[in-house]
Amino acid sequence: MAELIIMPKLGFNMSEGKIVKWYKREGETVKKGEPFFSVETDKTNIDIEATADGVIRKLFLEEGDKLPVTLPIAIVGAEGEDIDYLLDEAEKQLGKNVSAPTKAAEQSKEAPGKESSGYDYDVVVLGGGPGGYVAAIKAAQAGKKTAIVEKDHFGGTCLNAGCIPTKALLRSVQSLKEIKDAASYGIEGLDVSGVTLNMSKVQARKSNIISQLVRGVEGLLAGNGVKVYRGKGVIKDNHRIQVGEEFITAEYIIIATGSEVKSLPIPVDGGMKMLTSNEALNLEEIPKSIVVIGGGVIGIEFAYFLACAGSKVTVVEFLDRILPMLDEEITDQVAQMLRELGIEIHTGAKVTEVTKDAVVFEKGGSVYKQETDYVLMAVGRVPNLAGVPCEALGIKTERGAIVTGDTLKTSVDNIYAIGDVNGKAMLAHVASMEAVVAVKDICGEEARMDYDKVPSAIYVSPEIASVGLTESQARSKYGDIKVGRFPLLANGKAKVEGEERGLVKVIVEPKFNEILGIHLYCAHATEMIAEAVSAMKLEGTAEEMAMVIHPHPTVSEALMEAFEAAVDKAVHFL
Length: 574
Ligand code: FAD
Prior knowledge:
Bound molecules: flavin-adenine dinucleotide
Low-confidence stretches: 98-115
Helix content: 25-40%
Number of strands: 33
């Protein structure tokens, strides 16, 4: 009996396939097990064998055509057999997909060659943060005549006022903590009572790290032949940018202007020492007391740093838990650790006013007044659109962020927007990968962002890192799921390191053991998460991950055991 052959789904994430080759043509016979056609997925080409003997009665696609998975691509049947009903069915299914089959040739845009495009540059990048400088370097490496415009310091928020300076400060308190804990490792003779942070020296170390890295970025830009324009860039039209008195033109523009600190619209007394993350990074003394408004990643990293450095810290969070993006179980454990450090946490609390000596907030119908020397406003960041007149350019925005698809193109064909300015995931590693994808798209190469597999990391101790769905997100999406847990107190290396607190938790889809989420709260979590992201990206299953040999003793064994717990039973935990 004749059958419809469909575009096979050859991986969890495969949404469409391209016919690279038909090994059999219409009218030819095919035997079960013989190569029938070759499909290109986002990873590789795979030869598909015929599942039955028959004659190729109809091929719906030509070589090079693409089609979403599960739609009909061919009919195989007996010679002379009536296949009209299958043709009708195929037409119905393909008709619904007006865009399919699409000719790859039609989709692929002409990649501009190395020859001059008639503009000053093939690509101009606006902003030199981890999005912008990576885009400029990749474009130059791809042979594009490239320029970058930066109004301040290369490395953007990440190197100068974000990822790197916060981690430098946190490294200093980590050392302080280890010295104070020295006795528990058998070290005697230290009088740790007077051990404290010298903030000038801590700041000097931080500044030295930053300047080395910023110089490194400048060197990379120069070494790759990127022309640097210093000053604020303003996009004048789709191909023209003004920097100071100068105008430069570009075939493609990549907007990478980042984000800026957001504030709450509440009355603030001028007598209070108000900080944003920018000022908090440059403190020359540790405040006696501080209220951190906002329990997100930035607020919690500062709260942890300041509490370890000796400050009396209070966190006030509007939502019903701190770090709301994390798996609930991990948040609970982190909140417990922070409370043990002496941090007071108020959740479900709405800050209404900052007076000259206190933060006023409402919680559960009552009004509280928390006295404090300093306040850190850490309520998030907003895209920075200065220099980007979106409306005039026809660039679509939503809630203050530039709208982009998974190739990072804006609503204007030759303009891309990467990093914080598109508001998708305000993380440096996302900005950098978006840069790579945008440049590939400009060069006519196939590349798309996969926002489902973005890791996030929080540098308290133990560290926190996660990727994918939390348990509750997975339950609401998939219903029944498998959850594998492994507590760090059952891990040998965690004991050796003196950091037994924490949990590794994996979320697994029950039918195919697809990995949906991985949540780490343990020493080295921010390094270990790369293994988790690779496993998901390469579509490893929980069973396969449980069979990956992990070196012993390592904290990473806890991940293997959590996978074992999800699909069977962990060895080292009952
Ligand atoms: P940015 O890094 O903000 O760079 C934008 C650049 O564009 C800036 O240099 C700016 O001067 C320039 N610019 C803007 N407008 C113009 C113009 N008109 N003309 C010329 N130049 C212009 N992310 C992580 O992944 N991990 C972390 O641990 C982490 N920690 C953080 C801690 C803090 C305190 C903060 C504030 C952020 C942190 N982030 C972290 C977020 C991270 O810094 C950002 O996601 C990242 O820097 C975004 O990169 P970007 O290239 O989009 O923008």
